[in-house]
Specification:
Blueprint lengths: L7 H8 L3 H8 L9 H14 L5 H8 L4 E6 L5 H16 L3 E6 L4 H13 L4 E4 L6 H9 L4 E4 L10 E4 L1 H14 L5 E6 L4 H16 L6 E4 L1 H5 L3 H11 L5 E4 L2 H14 L8 E5 L3 H5 L5 E4 L2 H17 L9 E4 L2 E3 L7
Parallel strand pairs: 1-2, 1-3, 3-4, 4-5, 5-11, 6-7, 6-8, 8-9, 9-10
Antiparallel strand pairs: 10-12
Length: 339
């Protein structure tokens, strides 16, 4: 039979103090109300018996669950999971727990998740929103929930967000290929109107226009990618565009699809075709030849997201202060981008 869970009542009875006294101490409301001696006695006993409060019941009493939601496109993606892991530690150090979930860029699924988390009295939301999700974000703000958007934003919605300088980063990635001797640079991206993809496309076009080079843009739908059709689509694109001597991929998962195709076709990198990927991956450092990529500042992103969220959670005035943080990406130049 399992060990009986200890309650506040049990603690009060054991220490011969009132339930209210124990509640004040556990909820950090004992200062100037209860003596330091009693506070220490309760805290020592709680630590000794390993007492864990019922968070749901605690949330009903205080209106706070001490839980933050991290809603991303795909939590299994190394970029999102790495950030989640870093934020989890920072949240824990500040008395919060972090819940991760994936929306799969599905508006209906994201809406259902938010409805679920509202029922659980979650305190704040860090979200990489699907397309056309402005109304749902607006409703969260209207209900006075702390919200921080991440990786992408909505131009018409004034809400705090943390992104990287996608346009400048994409521009520098293409510039690196040009400096490496490539002149027919294809751009493989997602079929998306989301801000991060629009900004990366804009950076590609800006660099191509500056160097007066031919444009070649190929878009893969997220649906086709999830159906594992990106390999064959990229292969068709290359077959129809034999003039290309370099490829710039808008995401690391598109780059991985492209590398599989190039390997299958026996194309030599960088002798026959140069490659650069937006967003780094461990695979690129291990690949032969190594793959040049744009690295996003994962630690800085995690720190900034939690900094903004904690300001909103701990200070009601913090929710009215909108912060737009744009962090720099770093181009890691490897073997694939220079002939």
């Amino acid at each position: 039979m399992g060990k009986k869970k200890i309650s506040i009542t049990d603690i009060a009875k054991e220490l011969n103090v009132s339930i209210t006294t124990v509640s004040f101490i556990l909820n950090n409301k004992a200062k100037n109300r209860i003596s330091d001696e009693v506070i220490k006695k309760v805290q020592d006993y709680v630590k000794k018996v390993g007492y864990q409060p019922n968070q749901l019941a605690q949330g009903l009493r205080t209106g706070k669950s001490k839980i933050i939601v991290f809603m991303v496109e795909d939590i299994s993606d190394a970029f999102f999971s790495s950030i989640a892991r870093l934020m989890e530690g920072k949240a824990y150090d500040n008395g919060y727990k972090l819940i991760f979930c994936s929306t799969e860029n599905d508006k209906d699924k994201a809406r259902d998740l938010i409805r679920l988390f509202k029922d659980r009295q979650v305190d704040g939301y860090i979200i990489t929103p699907p397309a056309d999700f402005e109304q749902e974000i607006h409703e969260l703000l209207e209900e006075d929930f702390p919200v921080v958007l991440f990786d992408r934003y909505f131009e018409e919605l004034d809400v705090s967000h943390v992104i990287i300088n996608n346009q400048e980063s994409a521009f520098n990635s293409v510039k690196n290929l040009v400096e490496g001797g490539f002149r027919n640079i294809g751009y493989v991206t997602l079929e998306s109107n989301q801000s991060q993809m629009k900004d990366r496309l804009s950076g590609y076009e800006k660099a191509i226009d500056l160097y007066d080079l031919p444009k070649s843009i190929f878009k893969v739908s997220f649906k086709d990618f999830k159906a594992h059709r990106s390999d064959e689509l990229v292969e068709t694109y290359l077959k129809e565009n034999p003039q290309l001597d370099a490829l710039f991929f808008a995401t690391n998962y598109l780059a991985k699809s492209g590398l599989k195709v190039l390997k299958k076709k026996g194309v030599k990198i960088p002798e026959q075709i140069g490659v650069v990927s937006f967003d780094d991956s461990d695979v690129f450092e291990l690949y032969t030849p190594t793959i040049t990529s744009l690295s996003q500042p994962i630690e800085s992103i995690a720190d900034k997201l939690m900094e903004i969220m904690l300001k909103q959670l701990t200070n009601i005035k913090g929710r009215n202060k909108i912060i737009h943080a744009e962090l720099p990406g770093s181009l890691i130049v490897r073997e694939s981008s220079h002939k």
